[in-house]
Amino acid sequence: MKALRWLLAGVVWILAGVVGLVGAILCVTIILLPLGIPVLMLARRLFSLAGVLVLPRAARHPVQAMEAAVERGTKDARKGMKDAGKDMSRRSRRARKKAARTVEAAAPSA
Predict the structure, then answer these.
(1) Are 43 and 11 part of one and the same domain?
(2) Which of 26, 61, 100, 107 could join 32 in a cystine, given CB atoms 3.0 to 4.6 angstroms apart?
């Protein structure tokens, strides 16, 4: 997937270069200047798109990546607390049974 993104970014980058060259040639002629400026802006957007394709998702959308990480962390914490509660209830039952056996063993037989 990463190689495909890099390949696509390279193609978009080359396309942006060609579009920028066409825009620069259009800007040289005074008559075609109104066409050259929007073409140069399109080239700039294509260059930025190529740069975005190279970046990982966490760098492209840092807030969403942070929200996802926090959500995963809270789910793990909730699961850990639930497991700890079950473990503690098991331990307390075992301790109660052991204490009851100790009391029974220590009590005099009637």
Answers:
(1) yes
(2) 26
pLDDT tens sequence for the chain (110 residues):
788 989 999 999 999 999 999 999 999 988 888 999 999 999 999 999 999 989 887 777 777 777 777 777 777 767 766 666 666 666 777 777 777 777 667 766 55
Q: Are residues 89 and 63 in the same domain?
A: yes
Q: What is the pTM of this model?
A: 0.55
Distance, in Å, from the CA atom of 99 to the CA atom of 93, rounded to the nearest integer, reads 10
- Longest CA–CA separation in the chain, Å: 117
* Residue ranges making up the domain that contains 96: 58-110
Distance (Å, whole) CA 100 – CA 102: 5
CA-CA distance, 17 to 14, in Å (whole number)? 5
* Residue 93, token pair as written in the block: 């039952």
> How many structural domains are present in the chain?
2
